[in-house]
Amino acid sequence: MSATGEETTTEQVEIRAVPVRHYGRWIAGAIILVIAVIVVRSIATNENMQWNVVGDYLFNGRILHGLQNTLILTGVSMVIGVIGGILLAVMRLSPNPLTSGAAGIYIWLFRGTPLITQLIIWNYLALFYPRLGIGIPFGPTFVSADTNHLITPLAAALLGLGLNEAAYMAEIVRSGILSVDEGQLEAASALGMSRGKTLRRIILPQAMRVIIPPTGNETISMLKTTSLVVVIGYFELMLSAEEIYAQNYKIAPLLIVAALWYLFLTSILTLIQQQIERRFSRGSSRSVPQKTWAARLLGFRFGSRSEGQVR
Length: 311
Hints:
Layout: H1 23-45, H2 51-57, H3 61-92, H4 97-112, H5 115-123, E1 131-135, E2 141-146, H6 147-150, H7 153-178, H8 182-190, H9 195-225, H10 237-248, H11 251-280, H12 292-298
Antiparallel strand pairs: 1-2
Helix pairs in contact: 2-11, 3-4, 3-7, 3-9, 3-10, 4-7, 5-7, 7-9, 8-9, 9-11, 10-11
C-alpha cells in the first residue's frame, strides 16, 4: 500500500536471454571446412596418388607379412620395456646408492643416445665383441658363441627397441609410484603389512592411474618407431613397402599403403588408450609427495633399511 492508500501494481517484465553470437567461431569453422574440402578433393582426384595401385597392394602378401613383423616387434619390445622399466624404477627409488646409481646411469645412457644409433650398435655388436660367452671374470669361459649368430636382425631390433623403451618406462613407473600419498604407506605399516605386500596390493594399484595412460602413449609411439629397424635390414612394414617399390617403381602408392596401415593401427590403439584412461582416471588427483617414503618402501628389495635421500 502506498501513502495515499492506493494499491500499487508491479508490472511483470519477462526477461528473455539472448545467446551470444560467436561470429569469429563461425568464420573460422567455415574457413577450416573450405580448406578441408579443397585438401580432400585434391588428394582424391590427384592422379599421382594412383589409388588403384594402393588398392592392389593394400592386402598384398609381403605387406601383410611386414605388418605381422611390425606387430610382433611392438608387442615384444613393449613387454621388455615394461618389465625392464619396473625393475629400473625400483632400483632408482632404492636408498642403496649402488642400485640407484646403476639405474640412473642406464636411464641416462639409453635416453641420451639416438635409438637409431643403438639399433646399429646392436646389429654390429660383433665389431666390439666377436664372441659372447659366460664364464668367470679373468678366468675360463664355460660357454661361448659367435656374436653374428646370436645377434640376428630380429634380436638386434628387439634389444634396441626394448632396452631403449625400458629407460622411458622406468621414469613413468617411478612417477606413478611417487604419486601415491605417503599416508597409504603409513596406514599399511600400522596394519602390519610387509613392504612387499604393501607395494603389490596398495601402492601399485593406485599408481596405475598415472602409469597406464602414458604407457598407452608409449605403445602407440613404439608401433611407429619400429619403422627405424629398416636401417638394420629387418623385414617389417616399411621395408616391405620399400622392397616392392624398388621393383615396380610405384613409390607414391606404396608409401600411402604403409601410411594407411600405420594410421589404422594407431587409431585402434588410440581408442583402446582412451578407454583405459577413462577407467583409471576415476578418483581425485594427488600431488607428488616426497621421495623418501618410496625409498623406504622399496628398500626391502635390496636388504637396505636405512633412511636416506633418493637420488
